[in-house]
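REQUEST FORM: STRUCTURE PREDICTION
Request ID: SP-0412
Submitted by: Lab K.M.
Chain count: 1
Length (residues): 174
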Amino acid sequence: MKATIQNCAGLGFAATVLGFAWPALAQSSFEFKASSGIVADPFVVTNDSIRQFVDTDLAAGGRAVFSFTLTNAGTYALIFSVNVPNTETNSLYVDIDNEPQDSKTIWKIPATSGFENRIVFWPENVMPKQKNFTLAPGNHSIIVRGKEANVQIASIILRRLPAAPTNLRTAKSP
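STATUS: Completed
RESULT:
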C-alpha cells in the first residue's frame, strides 16, 4: 500500500489529508451473464436474462447456479444487474456455496428503472446489511433461487473487497 500526505494549510484551512493507493489485486472480480448459469424451472432465459413469471416459495422457486474457482482468499460482495418492476415483486434468495435458506438469505431489492446494478443485502435485525462473503481459494458456486415474479437478472459480478488499511495514525495539524 502506498500512502500520500497532502497538507491543506496553503488552501485556507489547516488539515492533513491521507490518501491511499491500493495495490493491484489479481483476480479481483468475476462477471457472469445470467444466461450462462445452470438454470432450472420456473426460471426461464429470455434475451440473455433470467426470471420467473410466478411467485413461489423457496422450494418451488427457479434455481440458477454459477460456478467459479478462486486462487486468492478474500472477502467478496455480489453485484447483480437486475430489473425490478416494483416494490411488490422484488425479492430473490441468494447464497454462495450453500442452498439459500428462507428467511436468512432473502434479498429484497429496491425497484429499478430498467436494468441497474444492485449490491446483495441480507436481513439483519431491523435494517438490511450488505452481505460480504469470506471465501477461501478453491471451487465455489453462487446459488440463486426465485421468489417473486418478474425479477429479471442480466448479470452477476463477484467483486473482491480491498482489505482495510492498517497502521493508521492521527496526524497533528501544522
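NOTES: Confidence is low (pLDDT under 50) at residues 1-25.
Reviewed by: T.R.
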